[in-house]
Amino acid sequence: MSKLFLDETYKGIDYTLQEFTVGEYDHCTFTDCLFPELHISNTNFLECTFIDCNFTNTKFGGTTLNNVLFKGCKMVGVDLSVCNDFMLSIQAENCVLDLANCYQCTLSNTHFKDCSLKEADFTESNLSQAVFTTCDLKGTIFDTTNLQKADFRTAVNYTIDLDKNQVKGARFSKDGVEGLVHKYGIKIS
Q1: Which residues form a coiled coil (predicted)?
Q2: Taking Cα atoms as reference points, which of 70, 72, 76 lies closest to residue 58?
């Protein structure tokens, strides 16, 4: 039976030096905590908030992230594709998610705000109705991805193949058109 942590606050903990307890964290807040390279597999985070935490290359195998908010977190190289996809629901603000693996993730209605998602992989993911507010998507992979009704109007540096992805109802800015027609060799000025 896993341990339950309810409405707890954790601040400034370096879990590379102090043991992290696998369990169920419900309505908990983590601030300035370090999780790099850590295995937090099979942990449940329900309605939790992470502020200024470091998750670089953290292992999330079988982890539940349900209604979780990440603010100012470093999440370079995280693999969300191994999370419990059934309840996967996150929001990210001012986070670095470069090289994140979101292969086949269901992230519909997710809001990424002021995030760096450089070279992240969203292959075969469901990002319907996702919002990318002032996000940098340089080198991000969208391949057979559901982008229906997604909002890219303030995102930059994206390249999306309209023939390989579902884009009906997606919103783009005029400045982003070049990222949609790149494969045709069209130059926009």
Answers
A1: none
A2: 76
Q: Are residues 143 and 59 in the same domain?
A: no
Whole-angstrom Cα distance, residue 167 to residue 152?
11
Q: Are residues 148 and 59 in the same domain?
A: no
Chosen domain end from 63, 79, 94: 94
Please tell me the total count of domains within the chain.
2
Give per-residue pLDDT as tens, 126-142: 999 999 999 999 999 99
* C-alpha closest to that of 127 among 149, 156, 159: 149
Helix H or strand E encompassing 112: strand 111-113
Closest CA to 180 of 189, 165, 169: 165
**8-state DSSP, 17:** T
- What H or E segment, with its residue span, contains residue 92? strand 89-93
CB atoms within 10 A of CB 7: 9
Q: Of 94, 120, 154, which residue constitutes the final position of a domain?
A: 94
